[in-house]
Amino acid sequence: MRMRTYSTWSKVRLIYSGFLSLLIGSIFALVGFFMVAVAAADIGQPDAGKRAFLGTVCLLAGFVIIMIGRRYVWKWAYEVRLGDDGSLEFVSLARTRRMRAQDLIAIDRTYVRLPTRGEDPRQLVIRSRDDSAHVPFFPAVEALIGELQAKNPSLTVPGNW
């Protein structure tokens, strides 16, 4: 069986962006947690409220950065493989999701909620009966959509970018 491979992003770029975001987010979250814990222990001090507020902001910022890293590591496919028999593989850093073109329900053209600087915010969300895959925009995305529609004629792709 022959597999056609579409490269969406550089694997090195995903590793760098994903794991760096997870590391920085974890540091922010831990620092924020400890700031809140220390402020709670010093509840009678005059500046405890300020430290608790700053710790909460730091904790929330850490969680937002962790969510961005999670998108890079677990969700985004850096490679999409389409087989002659209609099998699909979405390869991300942490896992490979497998689907069949015949099981696809919808392909949605959407935008990333928290885009980073220099990143194209357009993405595809490919949904099947059991799973979904997030694919960042890449130059040959329309060719991929055309091949998927050829293998599953009932598949519609609403929307424009």
Residue fraction in strands? 15-25%
Helix content: 40-55%
Distance N terminus to C terminus? 33 Å
Rg, rounded, reads 21 Å
Backbone structural class = alpha+beta
In order across it, which strands form the biggest sheet?
1-2-3-4
Main sheet record: 4 strands, antiparallel
Order of helices and strands: EHHEEEEEEH
Per DSSP E runs of 2 or more residues, the count of β-strands stands at 7
Summarize the structure.
The protein is α+β, with helices and mostly antiparallel strands and 161 residues long. The protein has helices at residues 11-41, 48-75, 141-151, and strands spanning 3-7, 79-83, 87-91, 96-100, 104-111, 122-128, 132-136.
Textual characterization of the structure:
43% of the residues lie in helices and 25% in strands. The protein has 161 residues and is an alpha+beta fold. It has a 4-stranded antiparallel sheet, covered by helices on one side. A 3-stranded antiparallel sheet has the order 5-6-7, with no helix packed on it. It is elongated and about 70 Å long. The model has no long low-confidence stretch (mean pLDDT 88).
Features:
three-stranded antiparallel β-sheet
Question: How is this fold's topology laid out?
Answer:
Elements: E1 3-7, H1 11-41, H2 48-75, E2 79-83, E3 87-91, E4 96-100, E5 104-111, E6 122-128, E7 132-136, H3 141-151
Antiparallel strand pairs: 1-2, 2-3, 3-4, 5-6, 6-7
